[in-house]
Specification:
Layout: H1 2-16, H2 19-66, H3 68-100, E1 108-112, H4 118-129, E2 134-140, H5 142-153, H6 156-161, E3 170-175, H7 180-191, E4 196-201, H8 204-245, H9 247-255, H10 260-303, H11 315-340
Antiparallel strand pairs: 1-3, 1-4, 2-3
Helix pairs in contact: 2-10, 3-8, 3-10, 8-10, 8-11, 10-11
Domain ABC3 transporter permease C-terminal: 224-337
Membrane topology: Multi-pass membrane protein
Keywords: Cell cycle, Cell division, Cell inner membrane, Cell membrane, Membrane, Transmembrane, Transmembrane helix
Length: 348
């Protein structure tokens, strides 16, 4: 009897011992399941966010395609507004390149003292060609200067009657820059050289040229700002009309719990698409205009003995212009949605 009681007590102990481990094992899976649920929820939210962006882009492209006539007009207005400053900027860049490549650019006439021999004159010319901002030099001896003056002035008989040649040796220096400040620095540097009597620089036409180029830059900047504002206003008006045409749809979305961000996103994509498409068309218009003008301009440059030719838009501009236009469209859409979306609320 006592043995049976001992066996029963041992069995009860064996049956009672697994109770605590079962509780501790049951708690761990619950914590793991909660972490897994939170991770899954975050992934679901990110996937839903990406899916809504894709749907918003598809919806924007679909609605642009549905109203082809009005969408085409909007894109063309944006393209024309942007092609004008872009084309003028390309022409201004070509003007800078052409003036840099002129053989008849500003030059310095360096008159040497009368006692400088021809060998010393040529040594100075070679030394100066190694200096910064000097492209090449041209040596004009006293005899060459006298012969040229006789041919051009018509006073050959008078000059021949003189006992000595009154003209000094000359070195013509051709700089590689037409910047007025650079030319002035070069003039002062050459004037300090030994054997130099006088340095003459005709820089007035260079100053006029740089003043015209600077004026063109400022006019293009002002025109760009004005037409960029016009692009934003065009997109604002287009998006405003789109919001008004979808007023009932927006009210329904807000009734079922749609946030302003949910409603705003398709309109933002629409504005960006309008701007980006307008920028692409602007690139096509500018390139076409440059191709059309290229022949006459190249012929004109040839008549002026210039080796330069009209260049088209830089490869970086082919990307920058559409992206800049897309940002303007996005800004216009943001302004339109921020102004008019808050006025649309469900009435209960």
């Amino acid at each position: 009897m006592a043995m049976e009681q001992g066996i029963l007590m041992a069995a009860n102990k064996r049956n009672a011992t697994p109770i605590k481990p079962r509780r501790s094992k049951a708690e761990k899976p619950r914590r793991a399941a909660g972490a897994h649920s939170a991770s899954t929820s975050l992934k679901d939210r990110l996937a839903s966010w990406r899916e809504h962006h894709r749907d918003s882009l598809r919806d924007a492209l679909h609605r642009i395609n549905l109203s082809r006539a009005s969408s085409t007009m909007t894109i063309l207005v944006i393209a024309i507004a942007l092609s004008l400053p872009a084309g003028l900027a390309v022409l201004l860049d070509n003007a800078r390149a052409i003036t840099r490549g002129w053989d008849g650019n500003a030059h310095l006439s360096v008159f040497l003292t009368m006692d400088v021999e021809e060998s010393r004159q040529r040594d100075l010319a070679r030394q100066w060609e190694a200096l910064d901002h000097i492209q090449r030099t041209k040596v004009i001896t006293r005899e060459q200067a006298l012969a040229e003056f006789q041919a051009l002035s018509g006073f050959g008989d008078v000059l021949e009657a003189l006992p000595d040649n009154p003209l000094p040796p000359l070195i013509v220096v051709f700089p590689d820059s037409t910047d007025p400040v650079t030319l002035r620095d070069l003039e002062n540097r050459l004037a300090a050289e030994p054997g130099v009597d006088l340095v003459q620089l005709d820089v007035e036409w260079v100053r006029r040229l740089h003043a015209l180029i600077e004026l063109g830059e400022r006019l293009i900047s002002a025109l760009t700002l004005a037409l960029a504002a016009a692009v934003v206003l065009v997109v604002v008006n287009t998006i405003r009309l789109g919001i008004e045409s979808r007023r009932d749809e927006i009210v329904v979305v807000k009734i079922v719990g749609g946030t302003d961000g949910f409603v705003r996103r398709p309109f933002l994509y629409t504005g960006f698409c309008f701007g980006f498409a307008g920028g692409l068309v602007a690139v096509i218009l500018v390139q076409t205009a440059l191709w059309w003008l290229g022949g006459p301009i190249d012929e004109l440059l040839t008549l002026y003995k210039s080796e330069q030719s009209l260049t088209s838009m830089a490869s970086s501009s082919l990307i920058i212009l559409p992206m800049f236009s897309g940002i303007l469209g996005l800004l216009g859409a943001w302004l339109a949605v921020g102004r008019h979306l808050g006025d649309i609320e469900p009435n209960f």
